[in-house]
């Protein structure tokens, strides 16, 4: 594959690192004090309560609502772990699949908000592209250690 400036594999590494930076920004911009005291989950509960799909309402009420503080920590630190893992290229296929699943969850929850959907769809597309291109082979801990060859 001919490209300008970088090789094809290097461009896919740039894409992976950019996605990692995006996840890191998702973590960084959260108001941690409000988020960890339940503010983020309370906001999401309001969206889930009015959701057009009953399965989303029921799932949220069953899995998330009973544990708002725990879920707030899981969501925030999942975003941090995804960001750091993708930037460093550590356990990259795992991070790409986990990120895609998290984006699908966000996509399902926010199905009525098209502004939010653009971000989730783009991140999902980048995750799938980086996964199928095996973007961990270049500029990554995984590549350096010979993991996932």
Automatic annotation (TrEMBL):
Membrane protein topology class: Multi-pass membrane protein
Keyword presence, Transmembrane helix: yes
Name of the featured protein: DoxX family protein
Keywords in alphabetical order: Membrane, Transmembrane, Transmembrane helix
GO cellular component terms, semicolon-separated: membrane
Xref: InterPro entries: DoxX
Transmembrane feature ranges: 6-24, 94-114, 121-139
Localisation per UniProt entry: Membrane
Native organism taxonomy: Bacteria, Bacillati, Actinomycetota, Actinomycetes, Kitasatosporales
Key word Transmembrane present: yes
Domain of life from the UniProt record: Bacteria
Species this chain originates from: Streptomyces lydicamycinicus
Pfam families: DoxX
């Amino acid at each position: 594959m001919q490209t300008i400036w970088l090789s094809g594999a290097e461009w896919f590494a740039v894409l992976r690192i950019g996605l990692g930076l995006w996840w890191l920004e998702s973590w960084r911009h959260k108001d941690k004090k409000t988020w960890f005291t339940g503010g983020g989950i309370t906001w999401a509960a309001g969206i889930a309560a009015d959701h057009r799909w009953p399965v989303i309402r029921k799932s949220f009420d069953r899995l998330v609502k009973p544990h708002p503080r725990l879920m707030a920590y899981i969501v925030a630190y999942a975003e941090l772990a995804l960001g750091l893992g993708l930037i460093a290229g550590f356990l990259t296929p795992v991070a790409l699949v986990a990120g895609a699943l998290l984006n699908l969850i966000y996509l399902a929850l926010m199905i009525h908000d098209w502004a939010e959907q653009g971000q989730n769809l783009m991140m999902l597309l980048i995750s799938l592209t980086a996964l199928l291109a095996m973007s961990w082979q270049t500029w990554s801990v995984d590549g350096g250690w010979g993991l996932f060859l």
